[in-house]
Amino acid sequence: MVTLLLPLANGIEFCFHRREVDPDNLNKVHRSGSVPPLLAITKGDHTLLRELLVILLLLKDIPYVDEHAGDLARKAKMDRPGFFAGSYHIVTKAGVIVPGAGTGIHGAVGVVLHLLKKINQLEYDFIIGERESHKKDPPEKEFEQATCF
Amino acid sequence: MVIIQTQALSQASQKLDQAWMATQVTKGWILDALKPLCRFTSAFVTAAEIDQGDKNCFNAHPTQRDPQVFGINSKGLARITAVTHGFWLRRSQVARLDVAALARCRPATDAEVAKALDLTASKVDTNAGEDLTSQARALVIARCMPKEILADKRLKHMVDLKQFYMAMWVMLCGHFVVAPC
Fold first, then answer.
1. Are A28 and B144 a contacting pair, CB within 8 Å?
2. Do residues A101 and B107 lie in contact, with contact meaning Cβ atoms separated by under 8 Å?
3. Cis? peptide before A138, omega within 30° of 0
4. Which residue, among B162, B168, B123, has the nearest Cα to B144 in the 3D structure?
5. Positions in chain B short of pLDDT 50
6. Nearest to B158 by CA among A109, B172, A97
7. In Å, how far are B88, B90, B115, B159 from B162, measured between CA atoms?
8. Does A56 contact B at CB distance below 8 Å?
9. Mean pLDDT of the A101-114 span
10. ipTM over 0.85
11. Which residue in A61, A77, A75 sits closest to A119, CA to CA?
């Protein structure tokens, strides 16, 4: 037990007690959430942090809704990725939950694919394997492939 | 014969966490989960019934020494309130989830996951600032923390600010006392 005493007015002291314990693996969870993003994405097995980074980075302009963080499936201006009742879902503009993506990294990529199809066709095609690059083709390549004459 | 439910406070909290992963929460299931907590509000309990992490929720009986018994204190009552409130809140939330009947999305395949990870890695350098890392860290902690935090009115301001590490720490480790000296 660590105790800090801070003197306040009128002879009253503010006593701050802190027990030297790690309940519910609080520090372990904090460390696992603090892994640098590139390391979390490229090294080791699939983790919770990797699932979240995939969603946050690939859908960076869309808010992520997670009921474990106190969010609710409310109406909004756009469809959003969400985590409800143990698996990933799409939350529509009307606040309706579209199920089917499932859990884990496959569920996270599932909801990303569902939304990318509408907002970024290039990246969607790249992930499903229909393109070799997620970037726009350069004009030179377009010229090389042109068959006008 | 009286069967004593050991470490009931932590067990009820863990059952609440299970409710957050379920698509259906029934009244019977909640009542079964909450029944063991009644003992804490109506009787002094032995050390065997108290989990290591719940010790700060109990005070030793001032005179009863053999066997040593413990009574719940205000911190323990606040936790029981949060757990109880959490169960009913969760049942209400699950009942109000509006799930689409026809529309469905699908899980990704292994090949799609590999491609998505390549694409994510290519975007890290330009986006991985302090905002992203702190948001990701807060979400990881939120996913792993006891869900009674979300139903604890004392911690509501921390939940609103997404300060889940602080909320967990205040609930489980620290307590504040203003004492005349």
1. no
2. yes
3. no
4. B168
5. 1-4, 176-181
6. B172
7. 22, 19, 31, 5
8. yes
9. 95
10. no
11. A61
What is the spatial distance between Cα A148 and Cα B7, in angstroms, rounded to a whole number? 78
pLDDT of B2 reads: 45
- State phi, psi for B161 to the nearest 5 degrees: -90, 0
Residue type at position B99: V
Whether the CB of A117 is below 8 Å from some CB of chain B: the reply is no
Query: How many Cα neighbours within 13 Å face the side chain of A123?
Result: 22
Verify whether the Cβ–Cβ distance A29 to B141 is below 8 Å: yes
User: What are the structure tokens assigned to A24, written together?
Assistant: 């519910």
Partner-chain residue, chosen from B107, B122, B123, that has the shortest CB–CB distance to A102: B107
Higher pLDDT, A7 or A125: A125
pLDDT of residue A32: 83
Q: Tell if the CB–CB gap between A57 and B123 is shorter than 8 Å.
A: yes
- Asked whether the predicted pLDDT for residue A4 surpasses 70, the reply is no
Residues B26 and B87: their CA atoms lie apart, in Å, by: 10
Largest distance between two CA atoms of chain B: 67
Backbone Cα Rg of chain A: 23
Task: Tell me the H-state helices in B97-163.
Answer: 110-127, 130-144, 156-160
Q: Kindly determine whether residue A24 and residue B123, on different chains, have CB atoms separated by under 8 Å.
A: no
| DSSP three-state, residue B83 | helix
Contacts of B176 in chain A (CB under 8 A): 14, 16
Q: CB contact, 8 Å: B102 with chain A?
A: no
Please give the Cα distance from B51 to A51 (Å, whole number). Answer: 33
Chain B, residues 8-37, CB within 8 A of chain A, namely 20-23
Tell me phi and psi for residue B45, to 5 degrees. Answer: -115, 160
Which of B81, B22, B12 has the alpha carbon at shortest distance from B53? B12
Q: What pLDDT, on the 0 to 100 scale, is given for residue B1?
A: 43
